[in-house]
Amino acid sequence: MHVDLGNAVETTPGLTDETLERLDDRVADAHDRIAAGMADEEFGYAALNLPAATDADAIREATDRFDRPEAVLTVGIGGSALGAATIANALESDVDAHFLDNVDPDAVAALLDDLPLADTVVNVVSKSGTTAETLANFLVVREAMTEAGVDWTERTLVTTGEEGNLRALADAHDLPALDVPDGVPGRFTALSTVGLVAPALQGHDIEAVLAGGRDGMADLSGSLFESPAYAYGAATYALAERGALTNAVMPYAESLETFAEWFAQLWAESLGKDGLGQTPARALGATDQHSQLQLYRAGPSDKLVSLIRPTERAETAIPETDLDGLAYLGGSSLGDLLDAEFEATEASLAAADVPNLRVEIDRVDERSLGELLYAMEAACVLYGELASVSTFTQPAVEWGKKAARGLLGGGDFAEADAVADKRELRVDGS
Ligand SMILES: O=P(O)(O)OC[C@H]1O[C@](O)(CO)[C@@H](O)[C@@H]1O
């Protein structure tokens, strides 16, 4: 993997060579802090040990109990789903991976109607074991399996914390149960049991994913000029400090679209603290050149664009054509066209003085995915150190959880009472 900062220097907002040199001194100090946290397995920093700490054999031992299924259904939300979904959705497999990470009744019903429940493994993931959406979906899935005459205890494994509802369920029904790593917030668990069970059930090489994470670990150093992860983290931080409060993450590969969704949770939930943060916008190249690019290039000078691509792609030839004005496409390939669009968009942003960062991985395979996930986690931790925010907590999400629980009679919460105080200003349609 490599990162190119060239298009963020002398832009608006922008960095200078002097900025980066001064920042490098702070990166060295931040790296020392991060390295100490990793060595002591401190809460949060322990995430950056996962490529070496995760026991792939334990994952295999739990998943090998199941014959190769037709489908894997992961029931989880946020970090308990997005890491696995990033890997599963990026790679080809003849085992379909599905993710229930929302409680939309139409979507849940449609999925359960489609799933071959007798040949589906249900992978329930929750660090806390109390997340309403995950537990509600599990109860609905279990009911559907029972009604279909499927013994759910034979088709279910769980990944959860040491205590809580899911641990109790696994104990009561002797379900295969894996541990969520201690001291790691959910959004940082992609390179652990949480992110690797579904890919393992699909037959992917989870050991290669972890090897890619270790490649990322090896690249951490005391200088942003030697570490792609720290280069990205330092540049995004410094650009935010100069007004780039939106980071539009735009992978030029359909296989990395879910990665942008995973990145959005990592960046928003880690760095959105104390009135600070950088809003992750999800985009996709080349598609969003025909939509959001107008805003990125000609809107307010308050954003940066992260352009991500694999340097190796599949090739699909574009047939020769005599269509007026389109003959230039013939004999080329879709990969060449996508790469030309990537480089054109990069230059288009630079010409408009919009800061953009290039992130390139070798190809979309297990090892490169592991390296990319790790690098962005390390970049996020570095940004949090430089911004002096509490990277590993997410207190702001608790208010809404309590309000929703109170509205459903799950307890007496002032937050639920506040819902009734909503100010009305209705404008009714015909
Ligand atoms: O794994 P759990 O405990 O169900 O939490 C799921 C997600 O919900 C959050 O706790 C936020 O509510 C995320 O940080 C986490 O990834």
From TrEMBL:
GO molecular function annotations of the record: glucose-6-phosphate isomerase activity
Keyword annotations: Cytoplasm, Gluconeogenesis, Glycolysis, Isomerase
Recorded superkingdom: Archaea
Catalysed conversion reaction: alpha-D-glucose 6-phosphate = beta-D-fructose 6-phosphate
Active site: 269, 290, 401
Enzyme Commission identifier(s): 5.3.1.9
Keyword Cytoplasm: yes
GO cellular component, one term: cytoplasm
Pathways per UniProt: Carbohydrate biosynthesis; gluconeogenesis; Carbohydrate degradation; glycolysis; D-glyceraldehyde 3-phosphate and glycerone phosphate from D-glucose: step 2/4
Span of domain SIS: 62-217
Record has Isomerase as a keyword: yes
Similarity annotation: Belongs to the GPI family.
Protein name, per record: Probable glucose-6-phosphate isomerase
Name of encoding gene: pgi
